[in-house]
Amino acid sequence: MTANEAFSHHIDILFEQNPVAARKIVRAIKDRCGISSPVYSNWRRGITKIKKLQRNEITQILGINIFTNVTD
After folding, report:
1. 27 vs 36: CA distance, rounded Å
2. Which residue from 41, 34, 40 is spatially nearest to 57, judged by alpha carbons?
């Protein structure tokens, strides 16, 4: 699994569980990673790679490391 696949899968789960909280998390990810909505969309679709520093920010926001078993 790639980092983008792990990210997209986790975001999907968050939206299934609690859409309001998921939107807040997505907003925090965009703000802290300094990305636009199109870049976020590209992350979800696997078009733009998620850089290691951005993965660290995402891990801090989520409180878990979803990138432990990814292959790049």
Report:
1. 10
2. 34
User: Token pair for residue 53?
Assistant: 């520093």
Looking at residue 64, its amino acid is I
* Structure tokens given for 68: 């432990």
Sign of CA dihedral 36, 20, 12, 72: positive
**What is the reported pTM?**
0.93
The rounded distance, in Å, linking the Cα atoms of 60 and 71 is 20
Rounded CA gap, 23 and 19, in Å? 6
Lookup: tokens for 23: 């939107």
Paired tokens of 64: 């878990």
pLDDT for residue 47: 97
